[in-house]
Amino acid sequence: MKIGIDKIGFATSQYVLQMDDLAQSRGADPEKFSKGLLLNALSISPITDDIITLGASAADSILTEEDRASIDMVIVATESSVDQSKAAAVYVHSLLGIQPFARSVEMKEACYSATAALDYARLHVDKHPEAKVLVIASDIAKYGAETPGESTQGAGSVAMLITQNPHILELNDNTLAQTRDIMDFWRPNYSTTPYVNGMYSTKQYLDMLKTTWLEYQKRFETSLTDFAAFCFHLPFPKLALKGFNKIMDKSLPAELQEKLQENFENSILYSKQIGNIYTGSLFLGLLSLLENSQNLVAGDQIAFFSYGSGAVAEIFTGKLVEGFQNQLKASRLRELKERIVLSVEEYEKIFFEEAVLDEAGNASFANYKTGPFALKEIREHQRIYGKVND
After folding, report:
1. C-alpha to C-alpha distance for 247 and 298, rounded to whole angstroms
2. pLDDT digits over 248-293, tens only?
3. For a Cys staple, 139 with which of 58, 146, 234, 278, CB 3.0–4.6 Å?
4. Residue 389 has pLDDT above 90, yes or no
5. Of 304, 322, 340, which marks where a domain is finished?
6. Which is nearest to 309 in space by CA: 203, 158, 176, 192?
7. What is the pLDDT of residue 160?
8. Are residues 42 and 87 both part of a single domain?
9. Confidence bin at 1 (pLDDT 50/70/90)
10. pLDDT single digits (tens) 314-364
11. Among residues 106, 109, 111, 291, which one is catalytic?
């Protein structure tokens, strides 16, 4: 049975911080960000636009009423959870009006968990061929003002509908994962921002890529010659470029090297304008590749490197299906330019705002611009979500 990504959607916040403005405010050379990280801008999310609203917005952009009546599982992968008990998927299920007899769960393992969600979704569809599974990777990367990680923040969500006979990408069975118990990035329950060992994390990312890819080639008797593109987890595009250079085989025909390089450049276009979205970064790279590449055709194989600090990595592959181009959107880069540009002072106020609860556990918020959904209020410690115009 052919199982894979039938539809893919994306949502990000309505506000943006330009990296040149951040550099000027922090007394840094702008090229530290533009060349050192390959970042031009960061999506900045206000308190009313969180992983629930972003995830629901991403899914709402692709789902039909028939989909909502057929989906029997919703999985939200995140490391920005809003509740230690209630799954984000339950909120999203309600906002989207999905039929009630569906399983809704949340998954976590840093930036890797959306890949695990795909695995789970594929197994479910294999067992229940008529099923549709909604997988959402939704995160807000937040490190704090004037911290070392400030320049790799961001916000966004990628939604994927997993079905049999998909219209975009057929997932192959050959996958390989690797786990290492390391402390490169973590966020204890008592902290609102993560702890990061940046250089160590970069080395682990690259070494897990190298060792997993070598073992993958050995186990499945494959090589780069079998692929038209290679997508990477994108905490920032420059790290993915280092990964691309690490696996590039210089003995490949020049034409194939050029194709792989061109497709890599296309895969990082959106991340350059959005920043880090944790669990969704790899799949934002896929979306960017598909919507901007001029050389991909049905039948092309794409390889993926997923990485989540702590750490779990996985390499998996997929094949583009006939007509995949019809499921894509050509206007996304133009729409990103329509976000509201924030000054550094405005960014510091909006991005790091926290709810102030009264004695009864209530909080209200300013009327920030969001997508079709928003966090309306907190009432007796309950997060109340709804459509913007309701």
Report:
1. 24
2. 999 999 999 999 999 999 999 999 999 999 999 999 999 999 999 9
3. 278
4. no
5. 322
6. 203
7. 98
8. yes
9. very high
10. 999 999 999 999 999 999 999 999 999 999 999 999 999 999 999 999 999
11. 111
Domain of residue 102: give its range.
Answer: 3-170+330-387
Q: Record the pTM.
A: 0.97
What is the 8-class DSSP label of residue 271?
Answer: H
Share of the chain above pLDDT 70, in %: 100
| Domain of residue 382, CATH code | 3.40.47.10
Question: If you write DSSP's letter for every residue of 252-268 in order, what string do you get?
Answer: S-HHHHHHHHHHHHHHT
E strands, 152-213, in order: 154-164, 169-171, 176-179, 185-186, 195-196
User: Rounded to whole angstroms, how far apart are CA atoms 201 and 38?
Assistant: 18
Instruction: Summarize the annotated binding site for (3S)-3-hydroxy-3-methylglutaryl-CoA as residue ranges.
Output: 29, 143, 242, 276
Same domain flag for 299 and 360? no
- Residue 226: DSSP 8-state: G
CB neighbours of 249 closer than 8 A, spacing ≥ 6?
Answer: 223, 224
DSSP secondary structure letter of residue 109: B
The amino acid present at 113, given as its one-letter code, is S
Distance between CA atoms of residues 226 and 183, nearest Å: 34
Burial class, 250, CB count within 10 angstroms (exposed 0-12 / middle 13-18 / buried 19+) = exposed
Do residue 22 and residue 124 come from a single domain?
Answer: yes
Of 169, 160, 168, nearest in space to 137 by CA: 160
Side chain identity at 369, as an amino acid letter? K
272 residue type, one letter: K
Of 233, 265, 291, 314, the active-site residue reads 233
| pLDDT given for residue 269 in this prediction | 98
Annotated binding site: 29, 143, 242, 276
Specify the pairing of strand 301-308 against strand 312-320.
Answer: antiparallel
Number of domains comprising the chain: 2
* Residues 137, 285 contacting (CB under 8 angstroms): no
**Do 171 and 118 touch, CB atoms closer than 8 A?**
yes
